[in-house]
Amino acid sequence: MFIQKQIVLAAAMTAALFTGSYADVPGRVTISGNEFQVCGKRIWMCGANTPWKNWNDFGGNYNADFWDTHFEPFNANGLNVTRVWISCSGEVGIKIDDDGYVNGATDAHWKDLDSYFALAKKHGVYVMATLISFDHFKDKYATFQKWRNWINSDKNIDSYINNYLIPFLKRYGTNEALWSIDMTNEPEWATESEGGAITWERFQKFWAKAAKAIHENSKVLVTVGIGVIKYNAEGIGMNGNKVSDSALQAQFQDKNAKLDFYSTHWYPWMDRYWPQMMYSTPGFFGIGDRPCLIGECTANGETGHTLAEDYENAYKNGWQGLLPWTSDHVDDNGGWEQVQPASLSFLKNHKELVLPVCDAGKASTPAEVTQTPETEK
Q: What are phi and psi for residue 83, nearest 5 degrees?
């Protein structure tokens, strides 16, 4: 009985070891060298994808109670960032006509996003906002032709930037919880069989113009969620870095047409082609010229490793963050039950990197439990 009671008490203490959390995000995330910082202190983006609760949440079937409840335990369990899809397939929210011209967004879209970003800020959760996905161009979705017409027209790209992206930035860009924008999720699938063979040049034109707009209208950092490393790297076995400064500026010449950091994805099916990403350095892949994080990976853990080991080794190898897929179990790649113990383990080892403090009146560090379990006499 004594041993059993001690095990229960120890488990309870482990769960309560870090009981504090931010009452707000501590400040604007910036870049220093190849690292992320907030108020001059390094921050490591220990997070998870929470891409949607209901497909096309914003302007669709948004559930504020879910997001409020889901974000509440993030900080106490070592999570400081999430990645969300602002538009999953383009069927709701954004006003786009048959020719691909964007006229803004619905009132419901803005209302839902107002709620979402307020909740993220309230719970001290930084947001990587993914604007669109390769799914927008897949013929399984009702609006696919509209989006193909959009990406293939300079005028239409400009309409999206002027009528949607810039209003988005003006509405949320001052909210420090919006730390970065991922302009497109895994675009390479839309250049092949799943999106009507959109060319890289068309995506690069969009990214270049959108990056310029983001940099000129906000302090939000910008990236692209490349799904396969061969499209984000040079060298043997690679297809060239499709999101390099030179690649973007070849399509639209402007000094602000560039990414602030790289965000590449990794899944076990890639093991046979390249060394496991978390156990290699960004420099190995030729992308060590700016901060790099792993924007997606399975929450079940890389082949032969646990997710806790993935977090730790990504950090040790110079990656500036890791965001497993997902915290809310949208598919068979795992969920909270896999993410929580792994992120909590990272927090125990690196709490100053996960939850740096800028203003004692604005944020609180996790309080360590000091009491010891009572012993049975």
A: -120, 125
Helix axes of 107-122 and 64-71: crossing angle, nearest 10 degrees = 20
Cα angle, residue 83 at apex, residues 64 and 42 outer, rounded to 5°: 120
Contact 56, 102 (CB under 8 A): no
Mean residue pLDDT across the chain: 91
Q: Give 44-354's CATH code, choosing from 3.30.360.10, 3.20.20.80, 3.30.470.10, 3.30.2350.10.
A: 3.20.20.80
Distance from C-alpha of 48 to C-alpha of 73, rounded to nearest angstrom: 13
pTM, 2 dp: 0.91
Amino acid occupying residue 278: M
Q: What are 137's two structure tokens?
A: 């161009």
Q: Which helix H or strand E contains 180, and what residues bound it? A: strand 178-185
| Gap between the Cα atoms of 214 and 258, Å rounded | 10
**Three-state secondary structure along 295-340?**
EECECCCCCCCCHHHHHHHHHHCCCCEECCECCCCCCCCCCHHHHH
Q: Which residues pair with 129 in a beta bridge?
A: 84, 181
Q: How far apart are CA 75 and CA 354, in angstroms?
A: 9
Q: Structural domain boundaries of the chain?
A: 44-354
Summarize pLDDT for 73-91 with one digit per residue, the tens: 999 999 999 999 999 999 9
The dihedrals phi and psi of 18, each to the nearest 5 degrees, come to -120, 95
> Phi, psi at residue 296, to the nearest 5°?
-150, 145
